[in-house]
Amino acid sequence: MNRIIAHARKDKYLLLLMIPGIVYYLTFRYLPMLGVAIAFEDFSYRKGVFGSTFVGLKHFLSFVTGPNFWPLLSNTVVVGALNIVITLPVSILFAILLSELGSRRFSGFVQAISLMPYFISTVVVVGITFMLIAPETGIVNRVIKAVTGNPIIFQADPGWFRPLYVITEMWQKNGWQAVVFTAAIVGIDPNLYEASAIDGAGRIRNILHITLPSIFPVIAVMMVLRVGSVMSLSFEKALLLQNPLTYATSDIIDTYTYRRGLLDGSVSFATAVELFKGILSLLLVDLTNTITRKLTNRGIW
Amino acid sequence: MRKAFLIATAIALALTLGGGAAWAKGSGESSSGQAAKGYDWGDTGGLKLPLVTKPTTLKYYVQEHPSTPFKKDWVIWKNLSEATGVTFDFVVVGADTFEQKMRLLYSTNDLPDIVATRLFLANEFGSQGGIENILANLDKMPNFAKALKTYPDAKAMITTLDGKAYYFPCLGSAKYLLNYLYRSDVFKKMGITPPEYTDDFEAALKKLREAYPDVYPFTSRRGITDQFSFFATIAPQWKTGQNMYLDAATDTYKYGPIEDNYKRMLQYFNKLYNEKLLDPEWATLATKQWEDKLINGRCFVTLDYIYRIETMLPAARAVNKEWTLDGLMPITEKGFGEPKLWVRNSSSDTDGFLVPANSKNKDLALRVIDFMYSPAGAYLTNFGKVGDTAVRGADGKYAFAPQVKCAANPSGTNAFDAFYGFTTLSSYTVFTPDMMSAQYTSREFFDCWNRYEAKNVGFIKPPLKYSETQRSQIAEIETALNDFCNAQTASFVVKGNFQDWDQFVAKARTYKIDKLVDLYNQVYKQSK
Q: What is the value of ipTM here, to two decimals?
């Protein structure tokens, strides 16, 4: 105890510096959590959090037993899982290819270019997508029309929602996601490569037996983090890409909550649904973390 | 995780809005509240103008229409300030956020003094408390009280179950809404008679497709979800309805999308789709693209407001001098359907006002609205001041002065709506018959109107009065059910997989249709 006080006294200025951060987290991250109370009430703005009637798990039960529970859950998980399964390997591959480029300057240039879309807002990305796939004027459909004669109405077909989501996600975020892997690759001891070159290994062997195993812990950690966010897809993008015709695949938990909570005003129900989603996400993270820790002896906790 | 806490978002948004409103107050300035001496305002129905003796400011919630961007120095506001002595401080919102912002302002007790709103919102808020009961204030509002006597429909519409009312409806709304529109010049040139039955309709579209092989002749921008959508307009002609609808034959509410008649309708449109007569974008087209298609001859038949016959003319004639739009009779299957179109009551349930009970100037707000219902106020908000923007004929009829551009005055310099603000959204409570003749002059428009009148195709949806419990029970079922059915039925049109119909109906039933039907019939019975 004395020791702690002595430490605190010694580092008092550093501790002082922490205060704004702590205050920030308390006000904007922890206090709002108390708002989940409305998930257990028939919340009315007029009556406030303390005045509304307490209804227990009513909203959770009505969601879980409701007819669109399974479609919503599977839509969310499938898009999220596809997104990880496809974009994660691509960004790893991209990072490896970058590191294999001979010219430093050229690889820097490519990396900068690939980063740029990340800074474009989702609305613009979706706008560009819609222009490209427009049935009569879009370049994609002009090519398709020239080949097959019939345009594909991407926006009206539920089957195209997931590919559109994942492809645009890849285009926009690939460069960004590859940054971590590029950094990890740079950190690999060059002696390893030299040693294996002396043993006669080629490039492919180097990648398979040195680069990949060396960055595997990073991949595992990224994987855990991404799985935790399987359920938290880009809400804006799903909302912008979807329309009632494609609800069969495009309606995810977030867009449904938005319609119920903000458009219909069923705030309690919407909060219950999102809380449910949050808990599920937490369980998923824990599960993947346990698995990766077993496999690699490394996890995030 | 962050997204789990909707309440945080709600609070943040409310704060932003509150901040925004405060900012608007700082910069809001409108015309002076001084009353001009010597101008005869006309019949104010007993109100003394100006309504206030010392300068007062009222906050005013306005919806903005994209084609007439809001201006606070519009003549309409200047006139209203001059007549009432009140300065207005506007809160302007676009259509896409109109409802959401109003909900947030309501929930934070920050509603402006005068709020442009819709009936269902006013009643929803009213039943929770905090909205002024209009019927308890009729003694202060001679003009509105008189209007309720002249329009018994309006009174029936706004009165809630417990005998209160929270909503001032706009009166004199034109009756007809959505119908089939077609390019009559193209039809005439090709010698096609305007069809009335499904077979002729299909044949006409086929001829058009043959003559213009690149063009899908029939399209729509109405989408597939709301009460103004594609099937909402068409289904009555197939003796069914989109979502919950009132079946006139049995006088009960039914759920349309699972009915055999609905399937029959979908099969017909699937046929049109397969024959490339119905645009593949029929369910997703946006207004701008739709206008481009219609104006540039990329489609010849569509489904839209009858007013488009008139309002699209300036833009379209600039491209093609022959361009003419006309209305078709409702298309029915011979020997099966009924030529029925959903029409509006003369009192609007989507354009109107409310006054919050906590407004500090609530009496004044009520009187301002009452003034707008008086003959003086109605003409002032429709035409402006006589000698300025308005002319009054010897017969007492109003028209616009020559400099004001409208359909009746095509050589005017400035548009009556975009430049002067007349009859823009949320700026009036009475749409006068004189305004109708100023805005609509096209022969096609009136001919079409008269054809509908002659055949008596219109039917009105009765106003429904919900209790708060019923409202939330209905919301719980309806959103999910309609989302599911609207998407599924639209996909039947595209894919034609009618072998899955029974499966679809069974799935739809799991969304508690029976309970919803019960609830609606309960509500309908108590609303009568």
A: 0.73
Q: Are B3 and A263 within 8 A, CB to CB? A: no
**Cα–Cα distances in Å, from A143 out to A130, A152, A171?**
15, 11, 20
3-state secondary structure of B430: strand
Residues 6+ apart with CB under 8 A from A32: B5, B7, B8, B11
CB spacing of A135 vs B1 below 8 angstroms: no
Confidence class for position B14, pLDDT limits 50, 70, 90 = very low
Q: Residues B346, B349, B350, CA angle at the centre, nearest 5°?
A: 115
**Could you tell me if residue B172 is left (phi over 0), alpha (psi between -120 and 50 degrees) or otherwise beta?**
left
Residue B128 pLDDT class (50, 70, 90 cuts): confident
Residue A199 CB partners (closer than 8 Å, separation 6+): none
Q: Does residue A210 form part of some domain?
A: yes
What is the CATH classification number for the domain harbouring A63? Answer: 1.10.3720.10
Non-local (6+) Cβ contacts of A71 within 8 A are A248, A251
Burial class (CB in 10 A: 0-12, 13-18, 19+), B182: buried
% residues pLDDT > 90 (chain A): 44
Q: How open is the CA angle A285-A286-A288, to the nearest 5 degrees?
A: 65
CA–CA distances in Å: residue A124 to residues A83, A170, A255, B405: 20, 15, 19, 37
Could you give the percent of chain B with pLDDT greater than 70?
Answer: 93
Q: Select from A247, A263, A270 the Cβ nearest to the Cβ of B487.
A: A247
CA–CA dist B271, B248 (Å, integer)? 28
Residue B251 φ then ψ, to 5°:
55, 40
Phi, psi of A216 (to 5 degrees): -60, -40
Confidence at residue B36, expressed as pLDDT on a 0 to 100 scale: 47
For A31, the closest chain B residue by CA position comes to: B8
Whether residue B50 has a cis bond before it, omega within 30° of 0 = yes
**How many independent structural domains does chain A possess?**
1
Each residue's pLDDT tens digit, B217-254: 999 999 888 888 999 999 999 999 999 999 999 999 99
**How much is the average pLDDT of A68-72?**
89
User: A5 in a domain, yes or no?
Assistant: no
Contact status, residue A297 vs residue A240, Cβ threshold 8 Å:
no
Work out whether the CA dihedral B439, B442, B444, B446 comes out positive or negative: positive
In-domain check, residue A177: yes
Rounded to the nearest angstrom, the minimum Cα separation between B225 and chain A is 7
Of the candidates B432, B408, B398, B456, which has an alpha carbon nearest to the alpha carbon of residue B173?
B432
Q: Do A245 and B3 touch (CB under 8 A)?
A: no
In a domain, residue A173? The reply is yes
Residue A118 structural domain: 45-296
Q: What is the mean pLDDT of residues B77-102?
A: 92
Interchain proximity A275–B4, CB inside 8 Å: yes
Q: How many CB atoms lie within 10 A of CB B205?
A: 23
Average pLDDT for B435-445? 91
What's the gap between Cα B39 and its chain centre? 34
Nearest Cβ partner of A67 from B106, B129, B511? B511
